[in-house]
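Reproducibility note. Readers wishing to regenerate the assembly model reported in the main text can use the exact inputs given here. Chain order matters: entities are listed in the order in which they were concatenated for prediction.
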Amino acid sequence: MLFSDSHILSTILFTPLVGAILMLFIPRTNANAHRLMGNLFGLLGLAVSLPLLWRFKFGAPDFQFQQRLDWIPSINAHYFLGIDGISFLMVMLTTVLGAIAILSSWSAIHKREKEYYILLLLLQTGMLGVFMSLDFVLFYVFWEVMLVPMYFLIGVWGSERRLYAAIKFFLYTLAGSVVMLLAILMIYFKVNTFDIREILMSPHAMFARDLQNWLFWGFFFAFAIKVPMFPFHTWLPDAHTEAPTAGSVILAGVLLKMGTYGFLRFSVPMFPDATMKFRWIMITLSLIGIIYGALVCMMQKDMKKLIAYSSVSHMGFCTLGIFALTPLGLSGSIIQQVNHGISTGALFLIVGVLYERRHTRLISEFGGLATPMPNFAAVYLIVTLSSLGMPLLNGFIGEFTILRGAFEVRWQWAAWGVIGVVLGAAYLLWLYQRVMFGNVTNPANEQLPDLNWREWTTIGTLILFAFWIGIYPKPLFDVLDKPVQQIVMRYDPSYYAPRNATLPLLDAAPAMASAPAAATPAPPETK
Amino acid sequence: MPFGIEFDDIRQYIAPVIYALVIVAVLPLMAGYIVLLERKVMAHMQARMGPMRVGPHGLLQPIADAVKLLLKEDITPKNADALMFWLAPLLSVTMALLAYAALPFGPAFQIADLDVGLLFILAISSLGIYGIVLGGWASNSHYSLLGALRSAAQLVSYETAAGLALVSGLLLGGTLSMKGLVEAQDSQGVWFIFVAPFSFFIYLIASIAETNRAPFDLPEAESELVAGYMTEYSGFRWSLYFLAEYANMIVVSGIAVTLFLGGWMRPLSGVHAHIFGLPYELLDLLPALIFFGLAAWCTKLALRQGEQIQKMVMFLFVGLFVVLGAAMAWSLTSTSLMPGIHGAFWFIVKVLVYLYGFLWFRFTFPRYRFDQLMKLGWQFLIPLALVNLVMIGIGIVLAQQFLWPLSLAMIAANVVTLIVAFWLVRQGDKPSIVVLPAEDELPAAGPGEIR
Amino acid sequence: MLPVSHYIYLSLALFIIGVIGVLTRRNVIIILMSIELILNAVNINLMAFSRMWGSVDGQIFAIFIITDAAAEAAVGLGIIIAFFRNRPTVLADEMDLLKW
Amino acid sequence: MNAVLPFFLDHIWLIPMFPLAGAALMFFIGRRLSNAAASAICVGSVGVSFVFALGAFFQLLGMPEGQRVAEKILFEWVPAGPYHMTSGSVTSFVADWGFLLDPLSAVMILVVTGVGLLIHIYSTGYMANEGGFYRFFGYLNLFMFSMLMLVLANNLLLLFVGWEGVGTCSYLLIGFWFKKKAASDAGKKAFIVNRVGDAGFLLGIFLTSALLGTIRFTEIGPALVTAHIAIGAPLITAIALLFFWGATGKSAQIPLYVWLPDAMEGPTPVSALIHAATMVTAGVYMVTRSNAIFQLSPLAMSVVAIVGAATAIFAASIGVVQNDIKKVLAYSTISQLGYMFLGCGVGAFTAGIFHLMTHAFFKGLLFLAAGSVIHAMSGEQDMTKMGALAKKIPTTYRTMLVATLAIAGIPPLAGFFSKDEILEKAFERSPALWVVGWITAGMTAFYMFRLLFMTFHGESHVDHDVEHHIHESPSAMTIPLTILAVLSIIGGWIGIGGRFEKFLEPVTASMGAPEIAAEAGKAPALLLMAASVLLALGGIWLAWMLYIKRTDLAAAVRRNAGALYDLVAHKYYIDEIYDAMFLNRSKDLGSSLGMFDAKIIDGLGVNGAAWLTRAISLVSMWWDTWIVDGSVRLGAFLVELASFPIRLIQDGEMQEYMLIIVIGLIGFLGYTVYLLHWMR
Amino acid sequence: MMLDSILFYFFAALAVGSAILMVTRRNAVHSAVFLISTLLAIAGIFLQLQAEFLFVVQIILYVGGIMVLFVFVIMLVNLDVAVRQMKFNRQSWVAGLLALVLGGLAVVVYRSGGGAFNLMGAPATTMPPNAEQVGTVLFQKYFLPFEIASILLLVAMIGAVVMAKRKI
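Running the prediction on these inputs yields the following structure tokens for the assembly.
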């Protein structure tokens, strides 16, 4: 057993923190030193996470790289880290996006650089901690820790209505997590442990059915707000709009994933009966989110707001996949989370490029940018296509797999989801057209410089990932195979065995409150 | 045995005493000849001949100098603090000599193999400051006091860098014992200069500064401070200071040799080349050959001498070298004596090479200004030493915990250090912010105006 | 080994001498030096007990005390220099105001 | 598939990769290349593809009949995981990077690379003076890649990759002149309408995998057999209809044809390549490719046939009154695509593919020739402003004439054979369908010759300034025209004697259901042939009458038809209806939902909670200030009072403080001694 | 044993003597020199207690480090007037007496508690290599205190620099 096996997670977790602490000692006036240090530690954080790529064993049944130390013995809380396939992907996503977000801020941030980079690094540690923790207390601590830097990032470096957005973000999320704390405490008093792994690894569900219902809703609010699911999403457009570019990237790329990660890690496997019971609500909310988000996108005048609402729509796909509770849905959902991090992260970077040049995000301010910025146009196009689910780019793989997984349960779910795909093409292309095509109408846009090497690096990296996932997603599926299987086995141990034909497509439609089944789109029959 | 003394006690107590006596006896002679060497080297570098009169090629010059110094009048200034004035040179030379206690001249030729040998030497050499500071202060002369203060500041500054450089060597060796360090290099099969070149480099510079040698001879800069802390001294006390300086040079060379240059180990000790079926190795013949070569060279020089007496003295040296060469050759046949004698030979050769570096630098570099000196110490050497230390630590962890090959780990570590070094040099090129004090802020009285 | 009491008396003697120095001398630097002496007296005790119990914990504490002494000397002397720059005196009983 | 395949068959996967490499080069270094270098790279890459395609085709021919299948799987693409089929058994969803060459795809790659190569060459001339030359060729190459992926894919999902890819390239190429709002609008419209179709296709893929457990073409047939699916089973009908729903989008059939006329905003070579020869025929290809499924569902087949026939006549009727030269061709394309679907729908898949191929030749030629005309006219597209060009641009005129004859179905040109075959099969199925097709054929002849006459004959209506510049196009453009003209003449001959049908038979018939063909009687082939030729001649005569002989008649017809003419001229107001029904409604929904989001959810819910909290906090603050904090301040006051006497001892003499400490110590020790000695 | 005792008494006498001289010398430099002497004697006692590491640390840090600082500062602030000023302050007699009383009391306390401490039970065994042992304990058992001490030093260093700077 090498030292690094048990400490690699701690190393990854605390590298950004160490950077933040070191930066405390650099004088505030030396902004470039802060930039350098921030980037250095961003990259270092990425570099120390790279060994996971070849050390991580695909298909191992247990959490890997576990490290478990006593922390607060009196309440039996441990410093307990470990990752499985899902968190492995999330950790890698976080380190990659973190490094990119930090790099993207080089020329975008011109005040209080010291605090900015320190907060970004702190945020990084918080997010990584959420994905690595295997102890409820530790999880909760990181969950909350990560709020604070984000609050300041929005509140200090945001644009005009930043204070409103920051406070809204903070209170909204906090409200959700308080309920979750109650649920965690309830778990503790029930099973007398904070050990997530123990609960997950127990052969049967540890909680009685009615308790499961309560716990499910307790966790639901925290996660649904974070995702965000339909009626809890209003903080997102504000936070996204006001946050600085890097903040938006992190927010969209990683923070939102914490909600879905929570569903995958806690709600679904720990409360299988409750999940099955409330699945229709979750699915309904997801589908509403998909279509609602896409429709609202159409009317946005602000680029960032549009992308924020598109996040609502895309994350609706993720929750749809999760609560379809089929292997395809689950693995598709996780891949779609990664995809969303990449595509939407890149979209925010792209808006950041424009914002940095023009200091406005209004779509009407732009138009015809393809003429002065041809490279930007190409990059933007690829990112747009990736986001709207173009095959050979990442989005398609995720959306397809999710819809396939949802289709397996109810074909109507997939049908409603497909509408979201169509609308996605509509609003994204419309945005692209309004920004890039036509003549340059605004004289301020005539001389905009094209991408510089830093922007190439940040967006280009994400595009490379997009192509990789689009063309060869097999490694992702391989990583997810085992954890997804474990989740499915939690609620349906017989899933992997063949069962009698049910032919759901030939059955009379069962009474389903989930999807508004009456108005199916089913186009061919109508002709 | 009488007085209840056992034979082991002799081994334990008497032998060190003998070694100590030998060192105390030989050291002044050695210092004298190093001075001669210095003068000859300087002369040849400046296209001169150097001492030629006293003895052939000035070979007896040290003795003449010594006699002159001992016979000179010993003056104590009127307002001097007599006690301190007397104590200071003694302190200086005592501390210099004390350090020899832990220096391993050979596997067997060491006064005491302390567990904390290296630290002991560091401790003792750090006491040498007092000799200078107190001497400068006790002279009650501004030149002396300024020289002393400069010296104190310089020594304290460079001790840090030197210490940090040595610590990285310690990390590699894993022991504080001087003997253990050499053995560690033996067992790892590599001199630490090759795994930690930056440590050696830092120590080289710091050791020059610590011995107040050019180009860091600010405390005794004759163009500024007459002779620094030694201004008021003359005669025997002056020669004590002088002796202390050269003894210190040998000590720092000894440390460097022990820690970085493999101590008493023969160069290429890993190469075992036997010749003609002889039982000893080819390279072990080198010492004898060197001495015989020297003898031959001296013979050639001797034959050129005009004066008969010069010729005779020269032949004396020929004889000396022949005897030494024979001893080297003869010791090959004895497995018990060979390591000790050869070890001592190689150790002294390495020390001489290192000392030659001292002389070389003295004649090639111009003297630093005091602020430049401080800047070099604090803004380059100490940060670099710190980084180097951390990097070597990381390298060792990589090698031990992550099972990297040591060479790879060390190359990586040193590359990082190299980058930092370049960065530091670039930083150093930028003009530093010098806050000059306003006149009224200077101390009102006392000889304390240094900055 | 000698009885520990020897060491204790020695350290007591040094301690009292240090205390006398602190209480009676006017020169701040000498007061500081007396404090160093007091600390050293403590160290002797620690070392003696460490030897007595055959454990190095006492030595560790001695190291910490030396660390502390170094810190104290650095800051103390720094204060003296700063003070001296404002008022050229090193006498303790002339330093009785918090601010000039 | 372990047998060692001949070189070209083993490397079919390279065919799409050459254009991809060209596109990638254009993307990365295109801007730094000269036009010549860029066109050399792009045309060269397509040329190499064409050579590989030819090689593969001949090596496929070299294989024994009935075994002409070459499949090359590179690696797993989407190994998504296990799922339950409708039958309840668990299977694993796998899509490979696999390439399949059978007679069908062999024909397709030849058409795609061949016509594509010609159009690439043509474009070097046509686009020579346009900005963004490299970009155009990059897009074209990307399109070639996607189209070849589409036809070479060995499974539905990979086909979908090409399917979406061609859509994207179409979007890019239609919007190539992105500064023109109409162009970018048209591109967007094309993409979104296609997307609507794709949604159906995607659901079809889901359903296929759910029902059959596979999406690989070579496995679909056997799976259909093992699943014992009855003819006309609802599920299989659903799949077929969903597929066809996708095809209507891509191939511009009712109801999703609306994007194609708009797509004429793109450069003319694009229209030729994408919107005539290749992409729009993808739907036909896809339907043919999955004919095994379609043949199991008579209902779906009927839908295909009826929609195809309806589209054919509907689009032809619009084409009759269009004045824009490219719009006419666009509606003609829609109409001809309808023909192909009609062929597929009546079970004549080979005829559909045959017509696809010949159509690629002559419609490609028509577009290219039209492009040549537009080129000569300095960008003028309105036919009413042309006329009498035959002398001025003779090569263009001659080639166009060939193509027009071909599309009108005059023997022995290509169009005659393919169209005739479809009509024959349609008659066998249902005479009503034949009548529709027959009338359409007449209309086609009419409007095509109307185009020809208005453009090349009669009086010149050309603007004066333009007139001087009229010139024949460069050889880079005329050579492809000529080659295509030759192909338009001889292209149909390979179908004589059923050779083409036989070649494609393994694809269309092996898993087909012979019953459908058996149902229908034999058609009187010669009679039908004569009827259609006669009608075509009649159409030509009518066109001659109206536009050459009695030009005043046309206007009279227009006046008398009145409302009907208006209706047709406005394309039956379909675009407006769609706008009103879908586009504006979804925009309205979006904006009202946006308001809902901002006012109700955010305003009432979130901000209302915030207001309530603030109100409560005001009350708490009063309490806090006066009661809670007041008691604290009281405590502070008391402490301050008590401190007064103690302050006196503090005089700043450090050593005195120390002495006090010592006294304290003495007291403490003394007390200890007292305890130790006197208390004992 | 004999040598041990001789060494102890020698160093003890040296330490006490030098300490007394240190307190009573008028000249601060002399005081410093005598303090150095005391410290060296104490180092000798450490050596006699077989604590080589502490012996070396005592010399390096105290004598080589801290005392150099003192000497340096004495020379910086050396006032000729100081030589002519009163050596002791006005409370010196009282204070000296009280200090002696304190010492006496301590002796009394110590002696009367003699039974409470097992003061004679010293092991005769030689200790293992001292530096290694100290290192092991320091970096394992006392790791956190060690880090805190290092932070203390850092703070002190910064404090000293800030304090001694002419202009901040």
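We highlight two features of this model. Chain E is about 75% helix and 0% strand. The mean pLDDT of chain E is 79.
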